[in-house]
Structures are given as structure tokens and as C-alpha cells.
Design goal:
Layout (H helix, E strand, L loop, with lengths): L2 H11 L4 H8 L3 H8 L3 H4 L2 H14 L4 H6 L39 H18 L1 H13 L42 E7 L3 E7 L2 E8 L4 E6 L3 E5 L5 E5 L2 E2 L1 H6 L3 E5 L2 E4 L5
Antiparallel strand pairs: 1-4, 1-6, 2-3, 2-5, 5-8, 6-7, 8-9
Length: 267
């Protein structure tokens, strides 16, 4: 037998209504209905579920530990793993070296001097008279000095930094709420998220909204809203979207007839 049915039968045996239980335990009627239909573990975190079940079981004179042991907790949503794409490596192209053993014909200044000296010695041995003229011609002929201009490294042109304009975040839309109208808040959950709603200082809801759920609350003066995943819900105030406010204020909203502001921490 489910926990909800046990608590409902125990309440019916004592001839108590949901209003009677709310009067003595301060538990809201919608929370009692969720407990008796076994939907509370899907709407709230385990801490709040255990607290409400313990209070309700003690009021009906049942053992809280036995009741909590029979609770069926929801299983977490499976995480889909994505495999990275396979990158095929291209075969490396071999490098071909085009080098030929060209003969080195250029001689340095020292090489030319040795060659000229050897030639003079040969001439002196063969033609002594011509050797004197060849030696004088060799002294007059001097290799020209290299007049090549020194190489200079090119200078890199300086690049001026590009001025970038700061990214402007879009401003939230303007709301029109008359002071005589009640504040009507509705939330549609695109994904499973946790919300807490206070109306005029009273806690109305503190639950886990499953994907696709839609809830509505009203207040006379102000609403205090806390949403764990503001980007995954659609928030409407009197038929006007205030989802940009929820994203801009990180899911903490203080709603009055003057507008929507950030709810301070700790409230």
C-alpha cells in the first residue's frame, strides 16, 4: 500500500478533513493533496518532503520512520552522453630534396693569391724575363673591395588596436500593472526546476515543477519569487512576460505594482 493511501485512510478513520489538518499542522491543503496522491516527492526536494511527512504522520499518530521508509523517490533524469566525432588524419606527404652536386668554382681571396703565386713560380722557371713583368702586373692588380651596402632588417609597421564597443544587454520590457489589480503570477516549466513563492509575506509554494507543469499564484501587494533555473521557465505577470527579468536577476524576483526588482539575498 502506498504512503499516500495509508495517510488518507488514517485521516478518514479519524473523520478529519484537509482543512482540519491544515488548522492543526499549518500544512497547506495543496501539499496535503500532493502527499495523499504520492506526488510530493516529484514536486519538492527530499528535505521538505521528509519534514511534511513527519509532521503529518505524527498528527495521525503513525510512526514517521515507517512512513518515510515506504516513500518512492523519483529517479534522476538520465544524462545523454555524446561521442566526439572521429577525426581522420591525412597521410603525411614526403618531402623531396632537389639538390645536385654542382662544382664549386668560386675561390676566395686566399685561393686566388695561392694560384697566382704558383703561376709566377712556373713562369720564372720557364721564362725568367717574362716572370718579372708578370710579378709587377700582379702587384698593380688588386681585387676590388666589396662595396655592397650592409643589409638592414625591414621594420614592421605598427598596427593600431581596434576599438571594440562593450556589449549591451537588452533592457527588460516595460510592465503595465494597475494598482487596483491583483498580482497574478504564472510559471510554465520547460524543464524540471525548483520554485519558491511567497504572497504578501506568506509562503504559498515551495516545490519542484516537472517539465511541462504550469502553476498560478496571486497576491494583493507583492510576490517574492525564487527560481533555480530561470532560463528554463516562462514567467508571466498579469498576462505580460517577465522572463527577461527572471534571467537578469538570476531567478530572484520581488514583484510589486511599481515593477519587478531583484529580491535581496536571505529573503
Amino acid at each position: 500500500m502506498n504512503v499516500g493511501i495509508q495517510l488518507q485512510q488514517a485521516r478518514a478513520a479519524r473523520k478529519l478533513s484537509l482543512a482540519d489538518v491544515t488548522l492543526h499542522t499549518k500544512i497547506q491543503p495543496w501539499v496535503l493533496e500532493a502527499i495523499e496522491t504520492d506526488r510530493l516527492p516529484e514536486m519538492m526536494s527530499p528535505i521538505y518532503v521528509k519534514g511534511f511527512l513527519t509532521t503529518y504522520a505524527k498528527f495521525l499518530q503513525l510512526n514517521p520512520e515507517t512512513v518515510l521508509a515506504q516513500v518512492q523517490w523519483p529517479q534522476p533524469e538520465p544524462v545523454q552522453e555524446t561521442t566526439p566525432p572521429v577525426v581522420r588524419q591525412q597521410p603525411a606527404v614526403p618531402k623531396i630534396s632537389w639538390s645536385f652536386p654542382w662544382p664549386k668554382l668560386a675561390l676566395g681571396r686566399a685561393g686566388w693569391a695561392v694560384a697566382m703565386s704558383a703561376a709566377i713560380v712556373v713562369v720564372m722557371l720557364v721564362h725568367p724575363g717574362r716572370a718579372a713583368r708578370t710579378a709587377s702586373a700582379t702587384k698593380r692588380a688588386k681585387p676590388a673591395a666589396s662595396t655592397a651596402a650592409p643589409k638592414t632588417s625591414p621594420k614592421l609597421a605598427s598596427v593600431a588596436p581596434i576599438a571594440t564597443e562593450p556589449i549591451k544587454t537588452p533592457e527588460p520590457p516595460t510592465l503595465t500593472v494597475l494598482a487596483t489589480q491583483p498580482l497574478e503570477l504564472s510559471i510554465i516549466a520547460n524543464r524540471t526546476t525548483w520554485v519558491q513563492i511567497r504572497s504578501d509575506g506568506k509562503l504559498l509554494s515551495q516545490q519542484r515543477l516537472p517539465r511541462g507543469a504550469q502553476e498560478r499564484w496571486t497576491a494583493k501587494k507583492q510576490l517574492e519569487v525564487v527560481v533555480s533555473k530561470p532560463s528554463q521557465v516562462e514567467v508571466m505577470l498579469n498576462g505580460q512576460s517577465i522572463s527577461p527579468f527572471a534571467i537578469a536577476h538570476h531567478g530572484r524576483l520581488l514583484i510589486t505594482h511599481r515593477g519587478v526588482t531583484r529580491l535581496p539575498e536571505g529573503e
